[in-house]
Amino acid sequence: MPRRSIDLSADVGEIEGSAGRAIDAAVIMQASTVHVACGGHAGDQSTMRRAVADCVEQGTVLGAHPSYPDREGFGRQKSSMGPGELLDSVAEQLAALDQVAAELGTVVRSVKPHGRLYHDAENDLDLAAGLIELLAARPEPTALVLQAVTQHRVAASAAGLLLLAEGFCDRRYTSTGRLVDRAEASAMLDDPGEAAAQALTLAMRGLEVADRVVQVDTLCLHSDAPGVLARIDAVRRALSRQGIVIAAVAQ
User: Fold this and answer.
1) What is 187-209 written as a DSSP string?
2) What kind of architecture, by CATH, is found in domain 5-246?
3) How far is CA 86 from CA 89, 95, 132, 137, in A?
4) Where are the domains of the chain?
5) Neighbours of 78 (CB within 10 A)
6) How do the residues of the chain divide into helix, strand and coil, expressed in percent and rounded to 5?
7) pLDDT 10s digits, 152-211
8) pLDDT tens by residue, 177-186
């Protein structure tokens, strides 16, 4: 039998102007969890407030999307910051979103690093340990979202932290379970049907890596990629046809 539920998430607050506002609002209506850019690579008080207000109105679970403080490179460039300075920056970004959330009557339930920080957190044990410690110390339970093939599940569990393994509906994978580099022409799954098919595979079976299958807790779509609304609609419909309920894990 297929699994009964899966989290469907998106990263929002990354497109400026009225067009970005409209896309974010539509995505928040469809997703069960969204991770809101909180000033590192994108986002400001205004965009955070609008996204959080939409989450409260729609009942969508709120997450944070911190990054290296790199607005020019959209958080995708390697930083020369030391570990302490970087973790201070992440803490500041979370605090900014926490404040908006508190003012609007909700809380941040999960944290997903963005861009280069997302990948560096997987490869750098000290960085991952710092993030786990930071989130484990938060007053409200806060899950950490990392890629499906993460090696940090045991460390997170030991700290009492829920770690969610993420699978992407709109990105291609290598045979090792890593994402195809964005520099490759085939990196993105733009076609809604392809994204929906991958979402079903990830939700019902998991991510195939060599001779094993890795469980996926949450699916992600990029809201800053053109055509996201068609893809998220196709994904939702495909999951529904298989009797899979879309529901947030961290609540």
Assistant:
1) SB--SHHHHHHHHHHHHHT-EEE
2) Alpha-Beta Barrel (3.20)
3) 5, 14, 14, 17
4) 5-246
5) 11
6) 40, 20, 40
7) 999 999 999 999 999 999 999 998 899 998 889 889 999 999 999 999 999 999 999 988
8) 999 988 898 8
